[in-house]
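BUG: 3D viewer hangs when loading the predicted structure for this chain

Environment: internal workstation, default settings.
Expected: structure renders.
Actual: progress bar stalls at 90%.

Input used:
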Amino acid sequence: MRFGVLGTGHWATVTQAAALATHPSATLAGVWGRSADKAKDLASRYGVPAYADVDELFNEVDAVAIALPPDVQAPLAVRAARAGKHLLLDKPVALAPAAADEVVAAAEAAGVATVVFFTNRFVPSIERFLSTNAELGGWYAAHGTMYTSIFRPGNPYAGSAWRKQHGGLWDLGPHALSVILPLLGPVIDLSAAEGPRDTAHLLLRHENGAASTLSLTIDAAPDASSFGFAYFGEHGATTLPAWDANQVEAFGSAVDAVMEAAATGTPHACDAKFGARVTHILAAAEQARTTSTIVPV
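Structure tokens produced before the viewer hung:
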């Protein structure tokens, strides 16, 4: 399968293009970016063409891997789907539920495969953990903490305008939800509160009676970084395991997933529909923390 990369930033360079360039069954066939010069630099690094016109790139590929801000990604994903291209999307799919739903509708109408790269879900140790414990069942509570500090000199995401505006809720929230929903089930309503250093604290109620809490920020004090997920259920308590793959390897697994979904017609668990559900939850959380109300999802 021939992939085009949309985007020229750090993630596009060191993860997506790197994984596609070394993938045994996929081909990195071209690059498009909002900056023509950056697109040329990235393309030359991997010996592929740079395209000034995104539609010209669509004409030369079977699928696109998108590494762009979510509000830029969504309309381009719709265009790519309408051009018949399979979609390997980044998270969150969009910053508005309607925009995420439009991606889903366009992909379904075109009959193209979709996968959203929730990184944890393509790490073998994490996916085994979730699969085993989803089958076990009986989980009624979970707590996740994701405190990172990206706004420091030298951090590749320090200059990310959309992250500065939307914070950890939208940047880390998708990662957190991707490892909570498989065990506790769909969210029916939630409340949220703001904390110091743009921390978002969420209380989620799931349709089977389970409840979960999340604490998220990308502006933690440098020495207060923390990451962890704990789960509680009828069979005891457990925690999310450590990674056994790096980001490039995980993205390679996501490439495999898109190709398998395209070949079999069987949707992946992390398809655009799942990505849209996550966007709906995040939008409800944004409303909840600004209105101090319980918001249905």
